[in-house]
Automatic annotation (TrEMBL):
Pfam families: DNA_methylase
PANTHER family registered for this protein in UniProt: TRNA (CYTOSINE(38)-C(5))-METHYLTRANSFERASE
Source organism of this protein record: Triticum aestivum (Wheat)
InterPro entries the UniProt entry points to: C5-MTase, C5_MeTfrase, SAM-dependent_MTases_sf
Active site: 81
GO MF, any single term: methyltransferase activity
GO process terms (BP): methylation
Classification via Gene3D superfamilies: DNA Methylase, subunit A, domain 2, Vaccinia Virus protein VP39
Family (UniProt): Belongs to the class I-like SAM-binding methyltransferase superfamily. C5-methyltransferase family.
GO cellular component, one term: nucleus
SUPFAM superfamilies named in the record: S-adenosyl-L-methionine-dependent methyltransferases
Full protein name: Uncharacterized protein
């Protein structure tokens, strides 16, 4: 029997290409025929990573005709999350950053070759927004089935707490393997994975249970020394911050400076190589301490101690260091598919000059 051609895929809001990387690692026969992003720097990184420069511009200006010409089977979309984040104003569809997504949802209804499959990713909070209502309304008009999920890397054995909303949508003629969960929002990947054990995928997964089955951070660390020159090139780029928890002094490597520990140690999320969780890394990591990502204990043979039991004076002895981008890529991916780096040897660094 003749092998069908690979799916033609469009990647909207391509950023640095997380969706493309995930698609490739899923093993599906698919080809990203075009990617779209407005951000030049993200497009530089994408080009560096994949050898293809995304279409630079505002997705809001695309027409049905523009998209028809790709005759794509599947669309991957990770639209801006700011309209839906809990920390934001939660203006949802009234936020200008949501307009382009709503525009392409509407375009789908006017296309000669609309996609047969959609994959949408966003923050937790999207699922209760009016944009979400519009997404489901358009998909229903076009006779798609949907399966929705809120999933965290912890559920896949990766010690990283980052729950995200995902929507899978397929035209009715293309069945989901497990149609009993159509139109449902699930908080477990059970129905997606074939080789699962009950322990790893029970229906009532809460974060504490997941830590038990998660791999320790140690399993994801790389230890590698590189020259100070390359590291200092990165560190010197960190901007002086002027908000509540700035990193005032960057050391020559990724060691957390002692003065920072003394001043802000209580606000740090401290993890050990044996820990089975670290918190979500944000773009303010390295610039601010609180809520921006975890720091790693590098001193050897220390038993993990609950943060509340740590004396301020003993924080200095932990040999704290920042996590660093995955080697070999211009910028880091820190997501289910992208193990983070960080040495558990003091003064040993893994980084990549961007
Ligand atoms: C949540 S990020 C996507 C992250 C991406 N999945 C990745 O792996 O890096 C949203 C992306 O949408 C882009 N973006 C936001 N509004 C846009 C618009 N109106 N047109 C094109 N790109 C836009 C941003 O530049 C950003 O890269």
């Amino acid at each position: 029997m003749e092998t069908p051609p690979p799916w033609r895929v469009l990647e909207f809001y391509s950023g640095i290409g997380g969706m493309r990387y995930a698609l490739a690692s899923s093993g599906v026969r698919a080809e990203v025929v075009e990617a779209f992003d407005i951000n030049d720097v993200a497009n530089d990184v994408y080009e560096h990573n994949f050898g293809h420069r995304p279409c630079q511009g505002n997705i809001q200006t695309l027409t049905a005709g523009d998209l028809d010409k790709y005759q794509a089977h599947a669309w991957l979309l990770s639209p801006p999350c700011q309209p839906y984040t809990r920390q934001g104003l939660q203006k949802h569809s009234a936020d200008a950053r949501a307009f382009s997504f709503i525009k392409i949802l509407n375009l789908m209804q006017n296309m000669s070759f609309p996609p047969q499959m959609l994959f949408v990713e966003n923050v937790v909070g999207f699922e209760v927004s009016d944009t979400h209502d519009q997404l489901l309304a358009v998909l229903s008009t076009l006779n798609f089935n949907t399966q929705e999920f809120i999933l965290s890397p912890l559920q896949f054995g990766v010690p990283y707490s980052r729950p995200r909303y995902f929507c899978l949508a397929k035209q009715e003629s293309m069945c989901f393997p497990n149609s009993s969960v159509n139109d449902k929002l699930l908080r477990t990947p059970t129905c997606l994975t074939l080789n699962t054990t009950r322990t790893q995928n029970s229906y009532d997964q809460n974060e504490d249970d997941l830590e038990v089955v998660c791999n320790p951070i140690r399993n994801f660390l790389e230890a590698q020394s590189i020259g100070d020159k390359e590291c200092s090139a990165i560190i010197s780029d960190f901007k002086e911050a002027d908000e509540c928890t700035p990193i005032e002094t960057a050391s020559h490597d990724y060691t957390v400076p002692l003065n920072l520990i003394e001043r802000w140690g209580n606000a740090m999320d401290i993890v050990y190589p044996e820990s089975k969780r670290c918190c979500c890394f944000t773009k303010s990591y390295y610039c601010y301490v609180k809520g921006t990502g975890s720091v790693l204990v590098t001193s050897k043979n220390l038993k993990p101690v609950p943060k509340e039991n740590l004396e301020m004076s003993s924080l200095n002895e932990l040999g704290l260091r920042f996590f660093t981008p995955q080697r070999g890529r211009k910028f880091a991916f820190i997501s289910p598919e992208f193990p983070f780096s960080g040495s558990h040897k003091p003064q040993t660094t893994v980084c990549h000059a961007g």
